[in-house]
Amino acid sequence: MGVTPDTALLDDLIKRRLDELLPQKLEELREKKTPSMTIIATKGTLDWAYPPFILSSTAAALGWNVSVFFTFYGLNLLKKDISDLKISPLGNPGMPMKMPFGPDWFKGINWNIPNAVQGVVPGFESLATVLMKQTIKNKGVAGIAELRQLCIEAGVNLIGCQMTVDLFGFTHSDFIPEVKEYCGAATFLPMARDADVSLFI
Amino acid sequence: MQVTVAVLDAKGLNCPLPILKARKALQGVAPGGLLEIYATDPGSVKDFEAFCRSTGNELVASTQDGNVFKFVIKRGN
């Protein structure tokens, strides 16, 4: 039993050849493979609608296969009408509160409005949303509906979480027809396993 | 040989719109054909480099005139 000297020699030879050839082969395989990305989109506000749509449309433009799984509040982003997405400065101290109009010195002011005030002023969220939408327009940043359309055109696979649909009492007809699939974690995870990039947003 | 140059005006647009519009415009360009892009987003300089690297297209030129960036992309196969 055991390894005869001949086999040992052969093993050594194979090992050395593999070391030489493998990196190149792996690189070839990597080059040939179409990159893929899966995203879990969990948020349904105007600001958080951006990362999944920006990343998936861009990845699709780079030729990647992209699937986005919309769950919980993220499901809002698949509704037929997404013009009512809102942004909330409440409890969001990282959000600059700047005016999108007026002279430069005025636009530069960061309005430090305490949460306590934001919380009791009626319509504060709507006002913040209007101002944010104006800023988005001024800066040439795409609207969410436009970005979503670009995702669809580029072949991004939009997936709805069936559990959330049931939980929040939605029906499939509330969502755009481009949502091809409604499924759960068991369908998403194997997709994520095969993806090169997988993000939770 | 006369090479037709398609032109894309992406001035005033911000990330990722110039890239997305360029991808669309490139679909209408024959392999080997050129696409000229004008943009004002400073991030697009790096982005177009990366875009071309990963899509098999060639970034033939990347120049700046004032605050306008000009890119010329040669479509790969």
Outline the structure in words:
The complex is a heterodimer of chains A (201) and B (77). With 201 residues, chain A is α/β, with parallel strands linked by helices. Chain A has a single domain (38-200), classed as Hypothetical Protein Ychn, Chain: A (3-Layer(aba) Sandwich). Chain A has eight helices and five strands; from the N terminus they run H-E-H-E-H-H-H-H-E-H-E-H-E. The longest helix of chain A has 28 residues, at 5-32. Chain A starts with a helix and ends with a strand. The mean pLDDT of chain A is 88. The longest helix of chain B has 12 residues, at 44-55. In chain B, strands 1-2-4-3 form a four-stranded mixed sheet, with helices on one face. Chain B has 77 residues and is of the alpha+beta class. Chain B is 30% helix and 35% strand. Chain B contains two helices and four strands, in the order βαβαββ. Chain B has a single domain (5-74), classed as TusA-like domain (Translation Initiation Factor IF3, 2-Layer Sandwich). Chain B is globular.
Itemize the secondary structure elements and their pairings.
The complex is a heterodimer of chains A (201) and B (77).
Chain A: H1 5-32, E1 36-41, H2 46-61, E2 65-70, H3 104-107, H4 115-120, H5 124-138, H6 144-153, E3 157-161, H7 162-167, E4 181-183, H8 185-194, E5 197-200
Parallel strand pairs in A: 1-2, 1-5, 2-3, 3-4
Helix pairs in contact in A: 2-6
Chain B: E1 5-10, H1 17-27, E2 34-39, H2 44-55, E3 58-65, E4 68-74
Parallel strand pairs in B: 1-2
Antiparallel strand pairs in B: 2-4, 3-4
Biggest chain pair interface: A-B, 14 and 16 residues
Shape of chain B: globular
**CATH architecture field of chain B:** 2-Layer Sandwich
* Main beta-sheet annotation of chain A: 5 strands, parallel
Q: Look at the structure and give the mean pLDDT of chain B.
A: 90
Order of helices and strands of chain A: HEHEHHHHEHEHE
Strand proportion of chain A, as a percent range, falls in 5-15%
Read across the widest sheet of chain A, the strand sequence of neighbours is 4-3-2-1-5
Query: What oligomeric arrangement do these chains adopt?
Result: heterodimer
Return the CATH topology of chain B: Translation Initiation Factor IF3
